[in-house]
Amino acid sequence: MEFKNTQNKSHNINGNIIWESRSVALNTVIIAIDSKKEPHVLISKRGIGTPDFQGYWNIPAGYLDRNETCSEGAVREVWEETNINVYSIIDETNVIHENIFEEWSTNSEIRNNRQNVSFRFGIYFEMEDFINKIELSDKNSEPNEIGEIKWIPLSTIDNYKFAFRHDELIKEFVEKFVNKTSEWVEFDENNSETYPSEGEEVLVTDGKNYDVAWYIMSSEYKWLKCNIEKDTSDDFTYFIPKKWKTIK
Q: Do residues 24 and 116 lie in contact, with contact meaning Cβ atoms separated by under 8 Å?
């Protein structure tokens, strides 16, 4: 068989054989929403200390270090570049969707910047007044690595020049995980018009917590695979949500 690859080179450094191979890049899309604002995405401007694309914008990104998983590296890069503790976001906000402990996408195209192999993570959460409550800072980053950090409405992405096609990455995450849900429906057990269709996959909430469930039409209200309610029987979880919305 014939292949078009170029073999990796090895280097002897202090008696250790080090292989020169493609690097692992970590990217994290962070999207937040509250009751008064459209979804916003977190971006930063590349500072004068970066090796390329100075003045362009990107999402939190960096390289995998030794002795860490891709997930851990992504969380570290977010903290270094924005001062956000992603684990605290997961614990303290209403998370609508998260791919922090496992990537939602990978990309090994040779057209990538420096032919990096990219692991993509992301989180979409709800928090009232997140713009003022979440402290953004570059105090953990390398000198002059970050020029500016801010939240921008998703509708304004095309107004910014992004490095590494990160605007495409944001749009892909939005299409997969943000735009896949419809408007919230207030559930009224006495009004059948507020019921989902039988067998429909929906996102449900009790007003604080969120979960995915399948609505099973029966003489009682049964939501399969829903973890919010405590009372379970057989393979079903009995649950009457405050609100629900369809997952497209």
A: yes
Place of tokens 């099973």: 216
Find the domain containing 54 and state its range. Answer: 22-178
Task: Supply 90's token pair.
Answer: 């997961």
Q: What is the value of pTM for the model shown?
A: 0.74
CB within 8 A of 50, min separation 6: which ones?
Answer: 144, 145
Handedness of CA 94, 241, 246, 194 (dihedral sign): negative
Both tokens of 219, joined, read: 């003489």
Looking at the structure, tell me whether residues 67 and 141 fall in a common domain.
yes
Q: What is the helix (H) or strand (E) element at residue 37, kind and residue range?
A: strand 37-46
Domain identity same for 39 and 75:
yes
Q: Which of 178, 207, 236 is the last residue of a domain?
A: 178
Decide which of 178, 194, 229 is a domain's last residue: 178
Mean of the per-residue pLDDT values for the chain? 85
Cβ–Cβ under 8 Å, residues 159 and 43: no
**Type of residue found at 36:** K
pLDDT in tens, 74-114: 999 999 999 999 999 999 998 888 999 999 999 999 888 88
Q: How far apart are alpha carbons 136 and 234 in whole angstroms?
A: 47
Ramachandran angles phi, psi of 71, nearest 5°: -60, -45
In a domain, 17, yes or no: no
Over residues 114-164, the pLDDT tens digits come to: 899 999 999 999 998 999 999 999 999 999 999 999 999 999 999 999 999
